């Protein structure tokens, strides 16, 4: 039987609608819109596309999008000075520095300069630490937060389930594992050195693939009925010469025959990431204004 398709596009659309209401209440209570400052250094075309979508989603939700486009040869000191100004600006609730940064910059140092309470990407070590110790003040990275939202919407209570997360990056795998742990899952984190990965995956009631390897997870790696969240976004050659298409880290056609529920690529996790960026900005805005933050 084919798995239930987890429609991330629909989930993100309904979340964004709800967040637009929250943004309206915020504006009415404080007399100003919640504001997200985005910073793009250089002209990487993929980064420019991501920033455009983030900015238009911010504006669509009734929030203010303040953009800073810096030339590729900007010095690190100049970027740090801009972050200082944004940290100090009372009209700015969230700061997002688009990664990757040009090679003359130390991304970890730049991220660590952002005020943790405005760090809406959730990449600052203070937020990673807050998440690890279960501090509700954590701003949590958007992609894993989106995955958790889809998992809870699909499965309800996650407590006691065995979750396997493939990938241990600081932006997806590790925070995903922490979130699942905080939901009382039994969590296994797999990575490139994991022995017998297919067998490890077969033990999972929840399988999250965040690897960056096209269709690596095969149908026979999946426990029948498992819930599969495919974070991977991989561009591969399409059947037509010169054309490409997007695939996930999971071999979708095979997986859908075995899994209970699965996210497609595209249209699964991807749309949730931007919705969660809006959510984090509103959470940061509410906390800074001393208001009850939205869920
Ligand atoms: P990274 O490259 O930072 O991390 C990949 C992880 O996968 C590493 O922990 C690595 O292990 C592990 N890995 C690599 N090869 C294997 C293997 N053969 N077997 C098991 N594990 C392996 O990637 P990200 O976490 O940043 O992203 C992962 C994927 O998610 C990418 O496809 C990316 O495009 C996508 N993504 C999607 C987003 C969305 O909005 N939907 C947002 C962010 C990312 P090790 O640590 O041992 O090297």
Give me a quick take on this structure.
By secondary structure, the chain is an alpha/beta fold. The chain is 41% helix and 16% strand. The strands form three sheets. It has a six-stranded parallel β-sheet with strand order 1-11-8-7-5-6. Strands 3-2-4 form a three-stranded parallel β-sheet, with helices on both faces.
Oligomeric state of the chains?
single chain
What's the alpha carbon Rg, rounded to whole Å?
19 Å
CATH fold category name of the largest domain: Rossmann fold
- What share of the residues does DSSP label as strand, in percent? 15-25%
Subunit structure: Homodimer.
Function: Catalyzes the oxidation of 5,10-methylenetetrahydrofolate to 5,10-methenyltetrahydrofolate and then the hydrolysis of 5,10-methenyltetrahydrofolate to 10-formyltetrahydrofolate.
Keywords: Amino-acid biosynthesis, Histidine biosynthesis, Hydrolase, Methionine biosynthesis, Multifunctional enzyme, NADP, One-carbon metabolism, Oxidoreductase, Purine biosynthesis
Pathway: One-carbon metabolism; tetrahydrofolate interconversion
């Amino acid at each position: 039987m084919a798995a239930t398709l987890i429609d991330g596009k629909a989930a993100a659309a309904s979340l964004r609608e709800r967040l637009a209401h929250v943004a309206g209440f915020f504006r009415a209570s404080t007399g100003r819109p919640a504001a997200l400052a985005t910073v793009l250094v250089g002209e990487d075309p993929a980064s420019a596309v991501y920033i455009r979508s983030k900015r238009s989603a911010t504006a669509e939700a009734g929030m203010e999008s303040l953009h800073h486009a810096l030339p590729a040869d900007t010095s690190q000191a100049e970027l740090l000075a801009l972050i200082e100004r944004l940290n100090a600006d009372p009209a700015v609730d969230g700061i997002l520095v688009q990664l990757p940064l040009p090679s003359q910059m130390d991304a970890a140092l730049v991220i660590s300069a952002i005020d943790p309470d405005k760090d809406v990407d959730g990449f600052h070590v203070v937020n990673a630490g807050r998440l690890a110790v279960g501090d509700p003040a954590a701003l949590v990275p958007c992609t894993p937060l989106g995955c958790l939202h889809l998992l809870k919407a699909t499965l309800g209570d996650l407590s006691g389930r065995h979750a396997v997360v493939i990938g241990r990056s600081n932006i997806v795998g590790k925070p995903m594992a922490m979130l699942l742990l905080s939901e009382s899952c039994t969590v296994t984190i797999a990575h490139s050195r994991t022995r017998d990965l297919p067998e490890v995956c077969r033990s999972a009631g929840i399988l999250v693939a965040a690897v960056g390897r096209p269709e690596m997870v095969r149908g026979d790696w999946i426990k029948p009925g498992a819930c599969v969240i495919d974070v991977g976004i991989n561009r591969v050659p399409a059947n037509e010469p010169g054309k490409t298409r997007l695939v996930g880290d999971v071999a979708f056609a095979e997986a859908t025959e075995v899994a209970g529920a699965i996210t497609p690529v595209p249209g699964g996790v991807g749309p949730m990431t931007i919705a969660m960026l809006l959510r984090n900005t509103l959470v940061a805005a509410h906390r800074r204004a001393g208001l009850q933050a939205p869920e």
